[in-house]
Specification:
It is a single chain. With about 230 residues, this protein is mainly α. The longest helix is centred in the C-terminal third of the chain and has 20 residues. α3 crosses α7. Strands 1-3-2 form a 3-stranded mixed β-sheet, with helices on one face. It has 9 helices and 3 strands; from the N terminus they run ααββαααβαααα.
Length: about 230
């Protein structure tokens, strides 16, 4: 599969660059683009995190296991686990206000983002410079290298997979949460929501998703960057 590397201008004025690209190529994107990786503020500190549509979350987790932690003997996943309550990392739900939005909301493309963050507060300030990175956030650029490896592993595994490596079970929890919110909002209003039918539909989806996901081989876990 083709890997397209693009850089966007005008993010802070309505995602102008990425929206223009999505609109111009919307037909091709809807037909053939099955993943978008968003690289935005990739390194501002030592804490690793990721956000991903559920379809790509297992691939993101596998990539974190495959890339060596630049500050330790294990993988980036091990760093992530050490920073996570109960040591069970999971990718967050993708947020808005970044260039992934047009792809996710307009063409329905699953998206993912990976980053090393910190409490330094330089983002969107005059201190967000190369000097800041070399002096404070990542003096030896080892985190930048790890971020590049992570994006590379995810991109190449998606591009070279013999099948589209989507996983669907992660959507079940989101659907149940959203249906509960809908039920609460309509319980005392004029709208009529058939909660039992919606719940049965989500159960059918969850069963089918779990069956599909059990048939998927997962990526190798060799640590990159030895």
């Amino acid at each position: 599969r083709t890997v397209v590397i693009a850089g966007w201008d005008g993010e802070e004025v309505g995602l102008a660059g990425s929206r223009a690209y999505e609109r111009r190529h919307s037909i091709d994107l809807a037909r053939g683009c099955f993943a978008y990786l968003n690289a935005d503020t990739n390194v501002s500190g030592p804490a690793f995190g990721a956000a991903s549509a559920a379809a790509l979350a297992p691939t993101v987790l596998d990539a974190a296991r495959a890339v060596r932690d630049p500050g330790g003997a294990g993988s980036v996943y091990d760093r992530w686990a050490a920073q996570t309550p109960q040591g069970a990392p999971r990718a967050d739900t993708p947020a808005g206000a970044s260039d992934q939005v047009p792809f996710l909301t307009e063409t329905g493309t699953p998206v993912a983002a990976l980053n090393f963050g910190g409490p330094f507060g330089a983002y969107h300030s005059s201190d967000d410079t190369l000097a800041y990175a070399t002096r404070f956030s990542d003096p030896d650029f080892s985190l930048h290298r790890a971020a590049a490896q992570l994006y590379g592993v995810v991109a190449l595994r998606l591009a070279d997979a013999g099948y589209v490596p989507y996983a669907f079970s992660g959507y079940s929890t989101q659907l149940r949460s959203a249906s509960a919110q809908l039920a609460a909002r309509t319980a005392h209003g004029s709208q009529n929501l058939d909660v039992p039918s919606l719940a049965r539909a989500i159960d059918r989806f969850s069963t089918a998703a779990a069956s599909f996901d059990r048939g998927l081989p997962r990526g190798a876990s060799d640590i990159a960057g030895r």
